[in-house]
Amino acid sequence: MSPKPLLRNSALAICVACLATPIFAANVWFAHDMPMSEMTEADIEILSSAADEALENAPDGDTRLWENPETGAGGALTPLSTSEQDGMRCRRLQIANEAGGKTARSEFDFCRQADGSWKVLSPPAAAGSTAQ
């Protein structure tokens, strides 16, 4: 599999995971207040590439920044922990994004699949999820 589909898969996983927050149960319309609703396709490509790089290479606690200078969207990606689950390398990733004046921060659990892609295993951690 080429890197482009892996990047798109990660971006899709992040987008889907963002929609799985506990807030969704209380307010179906919350997504319009999230940065993802303001991101362009280019923003998502840059975020996805940065997330893959952070998951693959960043030591726990090391923050990697991403930014699209054309739109002003950006954020920070911080692997918080690394573990092994069923023979797969897994990481908890804190994702903080800003786009269109909206900000959010969540934590996701990802595991590296046999094909090299990263799959979201959990919805955002409730304690780390915020939207402003």
Question: Roughly what is the average pLDDT, rounded to an integer?
Answer: 78
Strand count, sense and barrel status of the largest sheet are:
6 strands, antiparallel
- Sketch the topology as an H/E string, one letter per element: HHHEEEEEE
Distance from first to last alpha carbon: 37 Å
Net shape: elongated
- The DSSP helix count reads 3
Structural category is alpha+beta
Percent of sequence in beta strands: 25-35%
Q: How many β-strands, per DSSP?
A: 6
Number of domains: 1
Oligomer: single chain
Tell me the radius of gyration. 14 Å
Roughly what percent helix?
25-40%
Low-confidence stretches: 1-9, 16-30, 126-132
Fold and architecture overview:
This protein has 132 residues and is an alpha+beta fold. It has one domain (3-131). Helix content is 29%, strand content 33%. It is built from three helices and six strands; from the N terminus they run αααββββββ. Strands 1, 2, 3, 4, 5 and 6 form a six-stranded antiparallel sheet that branches. β2 (74-85) and β3 (88-99) form a beta hairpin. α1 packs across α3 (41-57). The longest helix has 17 residues, at 41-57. The model is unreliable at 1-9, 16-30 and 126-132 (pLDDT under 50).
In short:
This protein is an alpha+beta fold. The chain has helices spanning 3-18, 22-26, 41-57; strands at residues 64-67, 74-85, 88-99, 102-112, 118-120, 130-131. The N and C termini lie far apart (37 Å).
